[in-house]
Design a protein that fits this description.
This protein is mostly helical and 105 residues long. It is 80% helix and 0% strand. The chain contains 6 helices and no strands. α3 crosses α4, α4 packs antiparallel against α5 and α4 packs parallel to α6.
Amino acid sequence: MEQQEVLKEEVRKSERLEKEAAAGDAEAMYWTYQYYAISVHDYQKANKWLKLSAENNFIWGMEDYGERLCEMGKIAEGQFYLKKSCSAGQKSACEFLHKYCRTKR
């Protein structure tokens, strides 16, 4: 397949994915976040989809969003999402929560 055709197909896939995300699919929201962050480098759109993914209880979205919030100093909000992800079985969220997202004393 020619490079131009490959790119066109990728655009069509991303458009379908974003439609699914806009329709409320939390996993599609997460992958739309990944698409905008990694492929397009549009971090404003990426962050929008990551937050929505977390708010809609997608386990990886809650983990990534919680980590980002903790890194920004929003500890209580970050802990909220990390605890939800951890409670859903995401071990790496539990580890991040206990190692890096603690309230400073």
